């Protein structure tokens, strides 16, 4: 699906980008070392929330982090499934091979998934059966932003941001000249096998990285028939025998290489990644998908000795993506192609008496193409440009933070069989402001107000065809206007003594919320009727909360017994009724033991019934999951970890309400997962 000319063009683009960065070469010194203003410990600083870095307990922005240690022992799964269950997060759970994060009930184009701050340039937001073109095992760190408070990554991030940060372009020389991680695991519920490795080697001022992921699973076991009780009753059909979820297998291979020149004032590096994934769609028993993406990146930073700015950072990414749907062995059907590039430059201000900030520019050029019988979206050329600034003033007891962004998005569609090209251009402004104070030791309180605008996506504007993945005929509206939302959010962090906790209360009011609603008519596809859905605009109100906390019941040195808890809730109503696929409340309780050689935890998670549903949507039953986990570090240096997890011990039938497939595909049944990780 890729031609030599396309490869040549991408190579020229990469070389031009590298040449443009050539001025950074002068940053190198004969002896490489960290600059005097190098970043503080990453364990406490969220770079996605603010380009200048900010502690997650010192910002009004709702953040969450998975670091390298946690990722090394995390379940081998796609991104959405890995993050599901964290406060405010769920998964689209379309299939084990294709799951995308859902944040505060929002998904698709409203949630930005990034790779080192640059868009994935895939088609995962087009449809829930499209996989995210990156695997969490590649990451050294995953940062999640809940809500629209960050303006650095575009007005489209109205629901939140997930930033997958890897070490493919090294930014520091490895200690001792060598560092890395190797992790392997197996799972019983799907006969899963996974292996991941990453190695970074230093040679003088240069650092080189190589990494790879190999994961393979069979159809997973289910604790009940695949058809839900509610669907069987509604349509008068038999639920079937259960046993395994048909066509839920996965087969993933991804590898990458990169290298950097690292000096006393910065770095300059390039990388290449190849991702190939095959997975069953679950929705159709004989259809499987082949995903193929190649990606090149250039990243760099230069740190100034003096002046108003402490650093300039830049990143460029180019990717070619193909998603091919096979109706059976050797029978390729519809193909979705995406070819694009994104670039950004950021100037980070020097800290002056508690004042931090950054200004930047971002540009995107992407061509999306759909070919085949189920190409329900025409080919589209997309151009985006963004200008932004984020600022923060912190004098200890009182502070302010906020930002401003302007985006211009242009979409040009070429519908099949039509002579005229459809074009829409959107100019959007987004802004946020917040005040915070620290009235007592360990206590942080904040209040933020954000106003965001999001341009409609290519699907919302131009869709016109049968979308088998959602079992509907989808119709866009080329006259849609930008979606606008105003969000008020209150934040509290507390960390002192035996107790730590976080609380976020939010309310969002939408003007022109883009919703997909049934028209009441049907489309006849060879004798099978599919409901016709139309994208419309309406008013909407979202409100909810996320809370988590931990209390040390007993502590002595490195040994600690903690009681942990988390809860979230979101309610969403539109002028046309309840919004579709809004997750019900969840409550999680966890008893955890930590020590140098051994960790263990027992967890109980309760997810409520969802009985407030949109037209055409069935209610979803509540469920309770019981999980056990443990990790043992048998060696004195504790770099080797043997880990195990028993998930869904009671083999409970659980269905994710936000999933299009919830009534034909329950979540996996009882699962035992064991593995080994070595970090060096």
Largest sheet: 22 strands, antiparallel, barrel
> Structural class per helix/strand content?
mainly beta
Give the tally of β-strands. 36
Helix content: under 10%
* Number of helices in the DSSP assignment: 5
User: Overall mean pLDDT score?
Assistant: 90
| Radius of gyration using CA atoms only | 24 Å
Shape: globular
How far from one another are the termini?
A: 40 Å
Uncertain segments: 1-43
- Bin the strand percentage: over 45%
Q: How would you describe what is shown here?
A:
The protein is mainly beta. Helix content is 6%, strand content 56%. The protein is built from five helices and 36 strands. The protein has a 22-stranded antiparallel β-barrel. Strand 15 (250-263) and strand 16 form a beta hairpin. It is globular, with a radius of gyration of 24 Å. The chain starts with a helix and ends with a strand. Mean pLDDT is 90; it is low at 1-43.
Quick overview:
This protein is mainly β and about 675 residues long.
Helix and strand arrangement:
Elements: H1 4-20, E1 45-46, E2 54-55, E3 62-67, H2 68-72, H3 79-83, E4 89-91, E5 101-103, E6 111-115, E7 118-119, E8 141-146, E9 160-165, E10 178-187, E11 192-203, E12 206-217, E13 221-222, H4 229-235, E14 243-244, E15 250-263, E16 266-280, E17 288-303, E18 309-328, E19 331-349, E20 355-371, E21 379-394, E22 398-414, E23 422-440, E24 443-454, H5 458-462, E25 464-467, E26 472-475, E27 483-496, E28 499-525, E29 528-556, E30 559-574, E31 577-578, E32 586-594, E33 598-607, E34 623-632, E35 640-647, E36 671-679
